[in-house]
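TL;DR need structure tokens for one chain.
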Amino acid sequence: MPLVKTASLIAPGRGVAAFNVITLEHAVAVISGAEAAGVPVICQISENAVAFHGGRLAPIAAATAAVAQASTARVALHLDHVMDLDLLHQAADHGFSSVMYDGSRHPYDKNLARTAEAVSWAHAHGLWLEAELGEVGGKDGAHAPGVRTDPAEARAFVEATGVDGLAVAVGNSHAMTDRSATLDHDLICRLRDALSVPLVLHGSSGVPDDELRRAVRSGMTKINIGTALNIAFTTAVRTHAPTHVDPRAYLAPARDAMAATVAHLQTVIAGA
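>> reply
TL;DR here they are.
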């Protein structure tokens, strides 16, 4: 099926999962899991993943798009956590219909100015643009744990920049390897009521199923997941790799484990 636009998958009151793609195995697993769950999915490639591929966006983007186009699932491509404007400007040429520009390392005024610049470029090229306000935890000092997004500040930020979606800090944290996060659902509701754009939950791997369901019901729309796939992948590799030389013998179960994780989380998020 041809790629669909991220904007077409995002609607108030409905959750859509966005899974990080690092390798071809990730892409196949995410899209297979979406097919099994019978729901659309967003495949997102981060600036860190591009760096892993030698700074080249085209190969992993083309591979992910090819898997999507051979699938029966509705799949959108999203370029995630972009801080480099040169990389941002490559998005439209490689099948992406949305980008997350991450200016959260900067003070508020600089984040606002840089984000507004990114929005202007994205909209001129037909792209949906997500930004971040209130640093999400788990990024080795760049994102401070415990920070919460202020609804009034968020409303002013959205109005000044024209962003299409906003990643907010509500008790979530990147790179959690256990599912123990407790979200501030009252804050999610206040942000939902204050803003005219969809809310995005980053660091969702550490959020238990019931918390994810409640977050969607409270107003979260795009749910980002990465670490949960890597846990499934590496657990399977550790189990199978010691007895095999051929990488296919452990990459296949690793891919299957990721697909099962995707299908489960898709069912949780879409059924909230």
